[in-house]
């Protein structure tokens, strides 16, 4: 009797889920990213950090880490006072300590 019940249950599930002509609507966005209704109207592709940071009165460039207003991105200060700004060609990196420790090959 148990075997018959199991067979009927399996047959029922198979025919209802794989029956020809049956259409299922899948919400792939909700499956991949969750179904958070609060952020439904947020612009896609707009950086999340920029959405939540306070407004800065700046007509030039606002540094992402420090919110400092500078003329060019390369002029941004390091986020921590103990860091050193080490130049590497046309860009920089911030390191704790001295730039001599950094191998920029």
TrEMBL record:
It comes from the Eukaryota. InterPro entries: LCL2 (IPR034543). One of its GO terms (biological process) is ERAD pathway. Keywords: Signal. Residues 1-24 form the signal peptide. Belongs to the LCL2 family. PANTHER family: LONG CHRONOLOGICAL LIFESPAN PROTEIN 2. This is Long chronological lifespan protein 2.
């Amino acid at each position: 009797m148990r075997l018959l019940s199991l067979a009927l249950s399996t047959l029922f599930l198979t025919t209802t889920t794989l029956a020809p002509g049956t259409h299922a609507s899948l919400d792939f966005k909700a499956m991949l990213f969750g179904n958070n209704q609060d952020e439904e109207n947020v612009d896609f592709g707009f950086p999340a950090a920029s959405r939540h940071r306070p407004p800065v009165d700046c007509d030039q460039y606002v540094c992402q880490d420090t919110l400092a207003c500078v003329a060019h991105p390369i002029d941004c200060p390091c986020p921590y006072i103990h860091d050193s700004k080490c130049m590497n060609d046309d860009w920089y990196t911030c390191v704790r300590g001295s730039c001599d420790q950094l191998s920029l090959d």
